[in-house]
Specification:
Strand content: 15-25%
Helix content: 25-40%
Radius of gyration: 20 Å
Largest sheet: 8 strands, parallel
Oligomer: single chain
């Protein structure tokens, strides 16, 4: 990727990455990323982009590109989304060192309990994932900067039985609580048309009444552990005791910022209608295919991306997951 001229950089910085509160310019929030697992599969790319000081981002629904500053003085918080933070914790490709330049990191750690199974073949098993929590909390400096995502809650039929990841909620939530984490995001799987057509899987979409029962059970479990359940982009679950989620919450990021800097707090209108997130700039792309292989994911690639060296993980049969 060639270096853009300075006038282009300046114009894009003014138009795309500048936010104001009360007339004052505020730093932007970087999201890395809702669209692909950058931490796990694109750590080298991310490290290079940080050192370069900018990244070229494709608009997810058009062919337009724009440049985003990654200079620490322009960034309020880097929000990281991943199912495996080991590349960050182990400083692969220098990612941990590169991210240490920023004032604040906030991490969304997705642990569904399905890692290293046929549903998530190249994701770590949940027992391995939860062992990353102590070091991750230490790295970000405050357990409030880490949130657990038990997301999605998923049901399917196998050999005449209804299976689910729900039986693994308790040990996963308990591990989060033991590390000082207080927030858990949940949602139920949306089985898109292309996902439903995948051979070998019979997906089950529980009726709303059952979803509310499950949510109530999770809310009670979470409260007993000192956790709060937030519903991601699904207001129907609020009647069961879940709170509306702002997975990126400018007000929270402002309160947690070590220097007290304010983050943008306006609603992110680029997200789904029921999404409560405040504005951020997502630097990922659906063209950055994710090799994790989660079969329920609408962005699951048909072919394996090139120039990646994913570790081969076994995929044992699913046991003990009756829904």
């Amino acid at each position: 990727m060639g270096k853009p001229d300075e006038s282009c950089l300046a114009a894009v910085d003014r138009c795309k990455t500048t936010f104001f509160i009360g007339g004052w310019r505020v730093r932007h929030v970087i999201s890395a990323s809702r669209r692909t697992d950058i931490v796990t599969w694109y750590a080298a790319w991310f490290t290079k982009a940080i050192h370069r000081g900018w990244v070229k981002v494709r608009h997810p629904f058009s062919n337009d590109f724009y440049l985003v500053s990654l200079k620490p003085e322009d960034v309020h918080t880097v929000v990281l989304w991943s199912k495996d933070f080991s590349p960050l914790l182990e400083n692969r490709y220098g990612l941990r060192d590169a991210l240490s330049k920023y004032d604040q990191l906030f991490c969304h750690f997705t642990i569904t309990g399905l890692g290293a199974t046929p549903l998530e073949p190249k994701v770590p098993p949940w027992q391995e994932a939860v062992r990353q929590l102590p070091e991750l909390v230490k790295l970000v400096g405050d357990p409030r900067r880490v949130t657990l995502r038990f997301d999605p809650i998923i049901h399917w039929e196998e050999a005449g039985e209804i299976l689910s990841n729900l039986p693994l909620a308790e040990p996963i939530l308990r591990a989060a609580a033991e590390n000082g984490i207080t927030s858990v995001r949940i949602s139920f799987a949306t089985i898109y048309g292309k996902v439903r057509k995948r051979k070998g899987w019979k997906w089950i979409d529980p009726p709303l009444e059952r979803k509310l029962e499950i949510t109530s059970e999770l809310v009670r479990m979470a409260r007993s552990l000192g956790l709060t359940i937030y519903s991601c982009a699904d207001k129907s679950l609020l009647q069961a005791g879940a709170l509306p989620s702002r997975c990126i919450d400018g007000e929270l990021l402002s309160r947690l910022h070590p220097k007290g800097f304010k983050a943008p707090t306006e609603k992110d209108r680029g997200q789904r209608p029921q999404c409560g997130c405040t504005v951020s700039i997502d630097i990922g792309s659906y063209t950055m295919k994710c090799p994790s292989g989660c079969v329920y994911c609408y962005a699951h690639p048909i072919i394996q991306p090139k120039n990646l060296n994913p570790s081969e993980k076994s995929s044992p049969r699913l046991r003990g997951l009756r829904g």
